[in-house]
Write a structure and sequence with these properties.
Layout lengths: L2 H16 L1 H4 L6 E6 L6 H10 L1 H4 L4 E6 L6 H15 L13 H12 L4 E6 L4 H8 L10 E5 L3 H7 L6 E4 L5 H13 L6 H12 L5 H11 L7 H15 L4 H14 L3 H8 L10 E2 H10 L11 H14 L4 E5 L5 E5 L2 H13 L3 E4 L12 E7 L15 E7 L5 H8 L8 E3 L20 E3 L20 E3 L34 E6 L3 H7 L7 E7 L4 H8 L7 E6 L21 E5 L17 E5 L9 H5 L7 E5 L6 E4 L9 E5 L6 E4 L9 E5 L19 E5 L3 H8 L6 H6 L4 E5 L1
Parallel strand pairs: 1-4, 1-5, 2-3, 3-4, 9-10, 10-11, 11-12, 12-13, 13-14, 14-15, 15-16, 16-17, 17-18, 18-19, 19-20, 20-22, 21-23, 22-24, 24-25, 25-26
Antiparallel strand pairs: 6-8, 7-8
Helix pairs in contact: 1-3, 5-6, 9-11, 10-12, 11-13, 12-13, 15-16, 19-20
Amino acid sequence: MAESVVGFLIKQLSTLLSQESTLLGGLRPDVHFSGGNGGLGKTTLAKKVYDDAAVKKQFQSHAWITVSQNFQCDVIIRNLIQQLYEEIRQPVPPQVESMKGIRLSEFVKDFLKERRYILVLDDVWSLNAWQTIKYVLPDCNIASRIVLTTRITDVASASCLASHDFIHKMSPLSYDDSWTLFCNRTFQSNGCPSYLEEVCRKILKKCEGLPLGIVTMGGVLALKDKDKIDEWEMILREFGREVDGSGKLDRIRRILLLSYSDLPHHLKNCLLYLSTYPEDHPIDVAKLLDKWIALGFIEKEEGMIATDIAMRYLKELVNRSLIQVKVTWADGKLVKCGLHDFLREIIVSKSKEQSFTTVATGYCTRWPDKVRHLAIHNFTDNLSQGFSRLKCLRSVETFGYEDPLTTSFLSKFLCGGPKFLKVLNLYKAELDNIPKEVFKLFHLKFLNLSETRVKVIPKSIGQLQNLEFLFLDETTITEVGDYSNNFALWGFKSPDGIGKLTSLETLRIIEADGGNIVREIGKLIQLRQLFITKLRREDGKELVSSLLRLTNLRELHIGSIKEEETLDLQHSISPRLGFLTRLSLTGRLERVPEWVMSLQSLGTLFLQNSELSEDKNAIDCLGHLPNLVDLILHRAYEGETLCFKAGRFPKLQRLELGQLKRLKWVRVEEESMFSLEVFVIAGCKLMEGLPLGLQNLTKLKFLGFYDMFDDLIHKVQNLDNQSDYYQTISHIPQVCTGH
């Protein structure tokens, strides 16, 4: 959608959502809807309005829920609760996991009844879905807002009952706005070369003002040689044959199909694999790339590692508007991605045609013999036949369980069946142990046993010599020490032979459990991602020595065996971790290890329980890291004052200070952290005033105070235009507080 149109609509809808005259009245939340067919940009517009600073600052709680056709009410409500608690930096109460139906609804009502909230319900397909979710929300006079997007006109009309409710009907873009969007997407400018204008305008005309169609076509054309007009004319001819005479909805699908057809073979495989994921399922980018690599979709290139090539593939699909970015870190790293509904329909259809993917449900009675990728959605015991025919399987994905997926089922499934399996994802399966058939999968490269009940990783895992990615997050550990800190309860006890897994690229989370295991890790020279916990002080030097050999590491997390244990990582030898972008250290530090200061690529640093002293200038030295954009200090500093000096932290965008128990004052000098956008302080209860020098942070977009000194919270919540606090923070678009 053209920027001028977006800007006008955002201003119009943002005013409607946040104007004081409507915020003061109304017995129930105002409800605003965006009706219109798919591809018109409803979700895009709603997201821009939801993220608008003027809207954000009017509400205490914010949540975005994607509803989809096959919604499950309890799942949606738990998602809502998760977002509400994440926003206030609090863990979700453990009893929520076992709640269902009315109890869940009452929990949400109780949480929101005294809060002004904004809730976006995206892609609502039925009036029943709206009424089910509406029942969960409190009916109170505090002027909250609900934004609902739907392509079903009757849903918008039937749901919009009050006189102050509002429907914004989406329409195709005007020709001028379409041309601006097309040129920006295709040429990264407001115009196009004169010799291409005629063919471009003919292509654009066939898009009929549909934003999704325009950006998708722009993504195809942006990669074409601008000096070869015949290539552009060929696209026009193919495009014309595909879409002439079709309706608007079918036209979008045909545009997406053309964009898919234009992909090189290796990108088609990567895109088709996304058909294994359920509708609207948030896709973990890191694990997706690992699967692409394990399945051989990534072509080798001299001088480049597979992970970087895979990320380039993903970004190309994003640039072609075929994959949507959902979540990124402050350092720009892609975290979650997804698909537009229309594109998902296309790749699911293509996958079936090619026997690429089969999605099995509890109602599936027969699976195609030659299917290569099997996705099980909501596993049931009914899926227990025909295993021996699945000789061509390369991957098995599981998403949800109605019945337990047991060890005996898995053993039967693998016995005499898929010998060439490369990806086995058993996340949250109720496995008590790993059947011996798994260790016969010689070609297996990706194994996810996270949140299973597995207690022992046997030595026979050494038989999986091609294994590259092993995930065991939050598995049931054989031995748990008498520790109160949660971080020590994650991970697994390593078998002696883990050093034989020389192809391993991802290892999370492994218990150090003595110097022998730490030495074994040093043999895994292909590691890109390492999470190690329960490290003892006396094994620190051995770990640093192992890190010397792990020169390909991108992400490193180290945790001590207990909260008071010191991480002894300060030694004369210095690891050469030139590619490391993310580092997390959990445990006491006498000082920041010198080798950390040499991490030129480091973008994210998380220090927890470090207890660094004020007199050793520990935090200030971090300010020299040239590419640090995200810094989190949680119980990491023991000083009473914290000063961010001029010239330090030049690229820092997000800073979080959590539970710095002795901290009284924070000062920000001019020209310090001049790129900072998000600043959160939580649990620093001795701080009685705002950080000094906040006015120097001219790019700050969000300032949050949580679980702080009551008087400080009160002053921030009740700003007077004449107060010193108002003068200090009035330039910040969004200021939030909470307990």
